[in-house]
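Incident review: delayed structure delivery

Summary: a single-chain prediction request sat in the queue longer than the usual turnaround. Root cause was a stuck worker, restarted by the on-call engineer. No data loss occurred. The affected request and its eventual output are reproduced below so the record is complete for anyone auditing the incident later.

Affected input:
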Amino acid sequence: AVFRDLGAAFLVVIIIIYMLIVGWFQNFKTPMVMMMAIPLSLVGIVLGHWLLGAFFTATSFIGMIALAGVMVRNSVLLIDFIEIRLNDGIPMKQAIIDAGAVRTTPILLTTGAVVIGASIILFDPIFQGLAISLVAGAIVSTLLTLIVVPLIYYMVENKKWSKKQKAEAEEMKEIEKETPVAVEENPPAQI
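Output delivered after worker restart:
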């Protein structure tokens, strides 16, 4: 009964996170890419419990729910920066590289804070599952998020942004054709 209730709570959390991201990005596809961090954190949670020989408990599930928002935040940081660069006219590949270079430090700092905070309760018999979920899930999800989320974003959104940038380039060419070139009547004398 406890796991059923926590599963329902987890589902509600995922729906709320998705709605918030859709509201911010005004797009239904991009939030799905951002939420890839959640299954990536599950890899770490399962691996952490297996390595430490711990059972998956109700507190482990609570840690998984808490971790969902933090890990999606990492994806939001990456993709938001990528879209800012794309709107500046930077090509997709370069925007992804820039996002990785600029946003990796804040993402690692957030993960480090989660890991350090949860490490304190790692050997507590009651809250060990919570700590394992937070520590292992945060580490593995962060490492995978920095690689997997930009790759999936590239695969999903590349055509859209390529078309948009190509259309903008053609529009600029049309404007340049229509704009007369100014000719100076009295060019400065050369010395």
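Verification: The mean pLDDT is 87.
Action items: add queue-age alerting; document worker restart procedure.
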